[in-house]
Amino acid sequence: MQVPKIAWITVNHKCNLRCRWCYQRELKGKGTTMDKEMAKGIVNLLAGFQPRTIVLIGGEPTVWNHYFTLARHIAGKGLRTTVVSNGLTFANYKFVEKSVRAGITNVTISVKGFSPQGYEAGCGYSGGYEVVKRAIANLSRTPIKTMISITVSYDIVERWKEITAFLKEFPKGFYSFSFEKPVILADGTVAMDDRMMPGKIASWIQDVMYPSLAQSGIDFKAEFVFPHCQFPQSFIDEVEKSNHVFGGCLLLKSNGVVFDPAGNVLPCNHFVGFPLGKYGVDFKTSEEFLMWRESQGDFYKKTMSAPCEECGKCNRWYKCGAGCRLWWLYRGTPELIKTETASV
Ligand code: SF4
Ligand code: SF4
């Protein structure tokens, strides 16, 4: 098992938006907030591993009371801080300047819609579109490295044409595209848009999304956590060659760690209520964390192995990894595997 190379700290489950697809809606405002001392303690623990960056996520981390204090604490440990935000707060230039002074090195702005109407449809706030554009412009005037992140939900699929105008407005941005996936809540309910199942959007990805991004000339990466058999091998080869692919399932690599606001370690941040262990109970120091993590070997062994017999026999398994494990929890082989293109 590897030591964490990247760490996500979920500082709150509160947000200043109510996006239609986000699990925050399911929490109905009951979202929790991380205590400042716990956040500092987790950073101290992580500093022992010198991760590439500590990523502050939420909810919305910029509305967390201790945002600046923690950023200064992370910088004091010589580590980089990445903030993943809906961007609204960065429309205030004074907030941006204070973030620079606090040592924030990277911001990922998650853009939720690409017209006032798109923003209204996704988040119920048409004004958000202009606000987020102001935030991107503000950040571009600072040393903070900014990435524009787009989670492709079905709303975005339906309004894909609007993205073209946005890309023209910010052609120099660095973009990351990921896809909406299920979220499992503490009571076992799943927040999931069935229309985003791999078999339902694979042809759109291949015929519309990738070609239009490639033609736009922007610098981008797109997450590719789909069962590869949903696509022809020639398409996968082309995408890989283009160097536009990032990431992979965290559960397969086991080189990252995600904390929730109560200090629980989650398998990934889509498992909102399924802790594997807890800061202050199962471990407190870097050494204790490593020992605890070793004891979780069975869990990781399971998530790192093939989820079905077909994948176990498939020549594409090594590169493919069968996609997001959450689909496998709720759907099975008939829906996720396309046997005619699997290499079994
Ligand atoms: S199970 Fe893997 S691919 Fe799915 S959301 Fe979690 S980390 Fe991402
Ligand atoms: S059968 Fe499994 S390993 Fe093979 S391409 Fe499909 S999902 Fe990937």
TrEMBL record:
SUPFAM superfamilies linked to this entry: Radical SAM enzymes
Pfam name, any one: Radical_SAM
Transmembrane portions of the chain: none
PROSITE patterns, per the entry: RADICAL_SAM
Database matches in CDD domains: Radical_SAM (cd01335)
Boundaries of every Radical SAM core domain copy: 1-223
Keyword annotations: Iron, Iron-sulfur, Metal-binding, S-adenosyl-L-methionine
GO molecular function, one term: metal ion binding
PANTHER family: PQQA PEPTIDE CYCLASE, RADICAL SAM DOMAIN PROTEIN
Name of the protein this chain belongs to: Radical SAM core domain-containing protein
UniProt source species: Candidatus Nealsonbacteria bacterium RIFOXYB1_FULL_40_15
